[in-house]
Amino acid sequence: MAKIALSNAHCQKAQGAQYHDERTEWLYAQQVNAVARDWLEKLGHEVFLIEQGGSAREDLNKSVREINQLGVDCAVENHLNGSSDKKATYGSECICYPGSKSGRMLAADIMDCFRYLPFKQHGVTERRDLGFLRATNCPAVITEPFFITHEHENRFLDLDRGIEVVGNLIAEGILTWLTRQGGLHG
Ligand SMILES: [Zn+2]
Fold it and tell me: What is the CATH number of the domain that holds 80?
């Protein structure tokens, strides 16, 4: 059994990218994390839902500290992408910290599941500037399955089971990675 942290994008006070008022990354992430948690727990893994306390830097550090204290095997923070270019910018990507071999593998395994989504595949990208990726002491990945600001892509949220599909794909990617780790903790 593995210990997995699923972190919520942003917070209630600053909900991240949005489409109109009612669709925000924060709301999406709560739902998608609940789906992924259910699936991972059904398979016997221990899942921790991590909330960010606010938009300030201390609050980001708080969620990273919490993850580090839990001693999890991996941490995944689920976002949706946003852009002021509402038509042209679109597609799926997963982000890891440069040089983190296992983080990159986790990102690649989740990205591999995202190919079932009807969006352009940008693959795994690396970023040095994100505290969640840099300061966590376990393999960590940020998922961006599509652009919430894109007028067609955000319609995926209208689908009856859109959120469920994304949540299950994220869980599947994590499970594939765990299997590669050699059936972590039996
Ligand atoms: Zn975000």
Answer: 3.40.630.40
- For residue 59, the CA-to-ligand 1 centroid distance in Å is 15
How far, in Å, is the centroid of ligand 1 from the Cα of 3?
Answer: 24
Range of the domain at 95: 3-180
* DSSP output for 150-176: STTGGGGGGSTTHHHHHHHHHHHHHHH
Neighbours of ion ligand 1 (CB under 5 A): 9, 16, 25, 79
User: Whole-prediction pTM value?
Assistant: 0.93
User: According to the model, what pLDDT value does residue 89 have?
Assistant: 81
Element (H, E) at 38: helix 25-42
User: Can you list the residues of the chain whose pLDDT is less than 70?
Assistant: 53-60, 183-186
Total domains, the chain: 1
